[in-house]
Design a protein that fits this description.
The protein folds into two domains: 14-73 and 134-200, Sulfite Reductase Hemoprotein, domain 1, CATH 3.30.413.10; 76-132, Alpha-Beta Plaits. Helices cover 26% and strands 22% of the residues. Strand 4 and strand 5 form a beta hairpin. The protein is α/β, with parallel strands linked by helices. The chain is built from six helices and seven strands; from the N terminus they run E-H-E-E-H-E-E-H-E-E-H-H-H. A five-stranded mixed beta sheet has the order 1-2-3-6-7. Strands 4-5 form a two-stranded antiparallel ribbon. The protein has helices at 29-40, 90-94, 119-123, 163-177, 184-191, 193-200; strands at residues 14-15, 52-55, 69-79, 100-103, 106-109, 129-140, 152-158. The chain is elongated.
Length: 201
């Protein structure tokens, strides 16, 4: 029997229901959970406890950014058919990040404000907007407890197939650079996010 509920090891991976049940979900959280759980659950050798969370959309039901590593399903909207767009403005109205404005009666996106939740795609009456890419936004360094902090985004639109190897690289970097009982977030705070990402990628 492998124990993973306490001590310095990889803990149980947590995920929301995902596309199997939730109409808001953008990604198959349960399949990713199974892959990560089978490969990493209970692994020894990390400096402190290590937690992972998976959310199927930006609603963050599984609190992905409160874990050492978090994954949030995202999609990238694109105006595929300019002729089909009638300039109705529904995409502008529904965008929670206010990332869309209309120019010459066509939507223009500000990626820095986009939540990548696909709400604009869902309301487009003529399918002029499509999901050009889908994947996972990756967050690192989150934790709860006495000194909570939210994880920081380190990669976006990562394919599901790339996630396990990315976790391996992050764990290897964590083991190599962290002090005893230093959480991943504390390591990132000490090194700086840019240096940490250079070590990983």
């Amino acid at each position: 029997m492998i124990l993973g509920a306490c001590g310095a090891r990889v803990r149980v991976v947590v995920a929301c229901q995902g596309t199997d049940i939730c109409p808001q979900a953008l990604g198959d959280t349960q399949s990713l959970l199974k892959v990560l759980d089978e490969r990493f659950y209970g692994r020894y050798g990390v400096p402190h406890k290590f937690k992972m969370g998976i959310s199927g959309c930006p609603n963050a039901c599984a609190k992905h950014n409160e874990n050492d590593l978090g994954f949030m399903a995202v999609i990238e909207p694109k105006l595929e058919d300019k002729d089909a767009c009638i300039g109705c403005g529904l995409c502008v109205e529904v965008c929670p990040g206010k990332a869309i404005e209309t120019r010459d009666e066509k939507p223009v996106f500000d990626d820095s404000k986009c939540f990548h939740d696909g709400k604009c795609i869902g309301v487009c009456p003529f399918n002029a907007l499509i999901a050009s890419r889908s994947g996972w936004q990756v967050f690192a360094g989150g934790k709860w407890g006495r000194r909570p902090q939210l994880g920081l985004p380190i990669a976006n639109l990562v394919a599901t197939s790339q996630i396990p190897d990315m976790v391996e690289k992050i764990l290897a970097t964590y083991i190599k650079l962290a002090g005893k009982r230093e959480r991943l977030g504390e390591l990132i705070n000490r090194l700086g996010l840019e240096k940490f990402c250079k070590e990983v990628f």
